[in-house]
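new request in #modeling-help
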Amino acid sequence: MHEWALIRAIIAEVEEVVKKGYKVDEVTVYLGELQNVDKSVMEAYLNEAIPQIAPGAQVRYETEPARFRCRVCGREWGLDAVELDEATREAIHFVPEAVYSFVRCPFCGSRDYEITQGRGVRLALVTSRRQEETGETR
Amino acid sequence: MEQFGSIDPRLTGARLMLSKVKAVVPVMSAKGGVGKTLVAVLTALHAARMGRRVGLLDLDVTSPSAHIALGVDPQKLQPEERDGVVPPDVAGVKFMTVAFYTWDKPTPLRGPAVDDAIREVLAVTNWGELDLLVVDTPPGLRDEALDVLEYLPRPRVLAVATPSRLARAGVERLLAILEEQGLERYIVENMAIGAVGLEELAEKYHARYLGRIRYDPGVEEALGSPEKLLDTDMAKDVEQIAKKLLEELGL
């Protein structure tokens, strides 16, 4: 599945930070509404994998609503302002930039707009002291 | 305490997806209209015919065209979901293009969106084990081309130019950049009509000259069919180039 590609990448990022000697206390996975990944699949894999890589780490998920700003008329809108059929949603799910092929500014019809938030998946980590400072080893 | 805010996992994902690819060859040109897409498509088709496991990735995210050369209808043929998306087999080549998701509709993207689209395609495409991945890139030396060089592991660039003085000036700039970055580089001359070659340019920038491809007006009619494309005079010339390229790559 497509989610698995992103899950593997997130796991690799957390592993990398742990390898650098950080203790990861919290992992926040931001799920952009535009990409519309299956949150339950993410949770099922990451909630099991992250504690194995980073013991004690809390895993949180935050859904970011998609927001757009038109470069022509300056108006802002969200996904609820446009109608997308199932096939289009699926295309955007794989490559969110496909939105520019299907969606125009609902106010002026322009395709010249930017995605200001909620595009895709990203993560943020909160870490504490380096392991060598506390003498811990993996 | 330290915070790692807003990590983009896609480039790490891309590295994982490309980890079993032996050689990555972006086909680049400093100018448009030099036949880069056809050189990329024919090189991939020939390498596959020579028994190599080959992928072809069209990374021109705003104007993809490799699918047109191959006769792929992006709304009918779709990648299969399996640990990412697996590019469908087209004439023996694993083929991926953003057109699978934009369906040939206009996709006007500005700087950051171009970068995002490239990262996304690289992060989700599950290539599996390949000998060679040929990457058709957007022309020029702007964001897209530089992103490609940065994101692909150990890119060995195949530069395409025509004998035109305009194209020659462009490819000289491209070769200079590649040399500065210490990247392996090859050059082919497309639409060759006279005796003036680009060998001296290759020598100047320490690029390997792989040969010339004659101008072949018959190619236009063969577009849309891999079999017909492989039957053109252009394809015969590219076959020799593909052989040399595989040798250079140790494949």
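bot summary: The longest helix of chain B spans residues 233-249.
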